[in-house]
Each structure stands twice: as structure tokens, then as C-alpha cells.
Amino acid sequence: MSKTDQTAKIRDGNGFIAALDQSGGSTPKALRLYGIDEDAYASEAEMFDLMHAMRSRIAQAPAFTGDKVIGAILFEMTMDRQISGMPTAHYMWNERGVVPFLKVDKGLAEETDGVRLMKPMPDLEALLSRAVAAGVFGTKMRSVIDAANATGIAASVAQQFEVGAVIRAHGLMPIIEPEVTISITDKAEAEDILKEQITRHLDALPDDQQVMLKLTLPETANHYRSLVDHPRVLRVVALSGGYSRDEANDRLAQNKGMVASFSRALTEGLSAQQSDATFNAAISESIESIYQASVAG
Fold first, then answer.
1. Are 14-103+240-297 and 105-237 equal in CATH topology?
2. What value does the mean pLDDT take over residues 160-169?
3. Please, which residues bridge with residue 239 across strands?
4. Three-class DSSP labels, 7-48
5. Sign of the four-CA dihedral 276, 16, 160, 156
6. Measured in whole angstroms, how far is the alpha carbon of residue 152 from the centre of its chain?
7. Is the entire prediction scored with pTM above 0.70?
8. Average pLDDT for 144-170
9. Would you list the domain boundaries of the chain?
């Protein structure tokens, strides 16, 4: 199947994108929630081996197929490894029908003007070339908005679209992710500024270019509907942002046209100690609930 097939799956497919891209900073917490404490590994290499085993277990679960999971975001080290004897991106698409994406950012800079921009990515061009060779369809990069600061939000969105242009030049689909922190008191105001800034950059894109957007579930249902319908947007996906799976699903179901791209909410309730039967039942239930919330709109 071709890039055209993958584009159609992401644009039109019923389902959601699984975020399996925990990086060095978030991996210990993800493993802890999975029932593996930090005393279970003695090095970063062992930590990432355990994380890959968790991701592989999810990807090989009977319910993890393109019927309900239309895409998966991979960590760089995951892309470089194998599942079932196959390079991960090829396994995702050829065996599971799941479109592979790659997390490309290198983490967050210190807060300035109420936002945390992405750290510099000096090796981005080389990483994008590797992603293309590995059969990856698109990328994801995250910055964070901690206040309704117009200057900061403008800088965050500008950085996202600037890097997105580099990604597009490699023939990859960028997922633009300026996350709004769910706990801030001026979240709704930040979302108003964010939508205005994103719209301005989308309107400036050439007619033949599109991006994807990954956004925090908004305070007002359908706040981002104009972005969902924008001709320069392939798909809008939602991050769970720390909401429980139930709350994230409830909020998502109220937002027409948005689908999930959950990480922690997807793996909630999974444990390394579960038998395969129990684990597969738990991930199946998780996938089903997120799928239903994604198609509800």
C-alpha cells in the first residue's frame, strides 16, 4: 500500500492514533504505571528495553489493528528496533494496518513568556531522512503553553510551523502539537489565542500543503471546529493531557471531528504482571472505549 493509502487512512479512517512515544524523561513514570519500578533496571539501556517490551506487547495485542487504531506515534528508539522480527514501522503498517509516525522533538526549553518552546533539533534533517527510509508517514513534535500569554503562544505556534515546513520538505506529514496545560486557570483564554494563531499560520500555507494538529481537549466543546474543517488540515487529534481515560473520552466525544491521540490514557490499567489474556483484554477494552469516543463526533 502506498503513501496515498496512508493519507486516506489518516484523513478518513474511523479510529484514533496511539501515542507510544514516551521519551527518556517520561519513560520512568510510564514504566512505574505499568508496574515496573526504577529498581528493576540498572541503566538507561535496560529501561528502554523494558519500554520497548511494553510497546511491543501493546502492538501485538489482537485488538491493536487498523480497524480501530489508525496510527501510532513512535519514539526514535522504537523506530530503530523491531517487533516480531520486523522493523517497527513496517510491522505497524504491513502487519497491523496502523500508520506509523515518529516523535522528532528533543524535549522542552525553559519557560519564557508562559510557554516552553521545543529545544533545538540540530540533527533533525538526518532524523527525517532516516524516518523516510524506515517507512514512517509523519512526525510529531510537542511544545507546551502554561499561560494565556499572547507573545508566548505566538512564538510557540510560529516555531511549530517553522519546523513543520522542514518536515514537509522531506515528504513527511507534521503533527503540530502546542499542548495547553490542563491545570492552568486561564486555559480557555489560552485556547482562544492558540486557535487564532494556528488559523493565521494555516491560512498562510500554500494550497497544496497540509499539516495535522494535536491539541489539548478544549474547555468549550467544538472550540476547534474551524480547524477541523480547515482545508490545510489533514486531521485534528486530541491529547489526553493528564485527564483520566474516562474524562478524556467524555470530553473527546463532545468535539465533532476530533479523534484521540492518547498516551497515558491508552495504557491506563495495563501491567507488566498481567497474564497475556488479562493484558489483551485490558488493552482491548481501552482501545474500544477510546475508539467509541473518537467516532462519537
1. yes
2. 98
3. 216
4. HHHHHHCCCEEEEECCCCCCHHHHHHHCCCCHHHCCCHHHHH
5. negative
6. 22
7. yes
8. 98
9. 14-103+240-297, 105-237
Q: Which three cell numbers stand for residue 210?
A: 497540509
What string of DSSP letters covers 194-263? Answer: HHHHHHHHHHHS-TT--EEEEEEPPSSTTTTHHHHT-TTEEEEEEE-TT--HHHHHHHHHTSTT-EE--S
What percent of the chain shows pLDDT beyond 90?
92
Q: What's the confidence (pLDDT) of residue 209?
A: 96
The vertex-66 CA angle with 256 and 76, nearest 5°, equals 95
Q: Name the CATH superfamily for 14-103+240-297.
A: Aldolase class I (3.20.20.70)
| Predicted confidence (pLDDT) per residue in 9-45, tens digit | 999 999 999 999 877 677 888 899 899 999 999 999 9
Task: Note if 214 is an active site residue.
Answer: yes
Confidence of residue 65 (pLDDT cuts 50, 70, 90): very high
Q: Which of 264, 222, 240 is nearest to 180 (CA)?
A: 240
Q: Of the residues 68, 106, 140, 177, which is catalytic?
A: 177
CATH superfamily placement of domain 105-237: Aldolase class I (3.20.20.70)
pLDDT for 261 beyond 70: yes
Give CA separation, 163 vs 40, 105, 125, 167, 173, in Å.
Answer: 37, 10, 10, 6, 12
Confidence label for 165 from pLDDT (cuts 50, 70 and 90): very high
The single residue of 68, 103, 195, 214 carrying the catalytic annotation is: 214
Grid cell at residue 211: 499539516
Contact between residue 283 and residue 58 where contact means Cβ atoms under 8 Å apart: yes
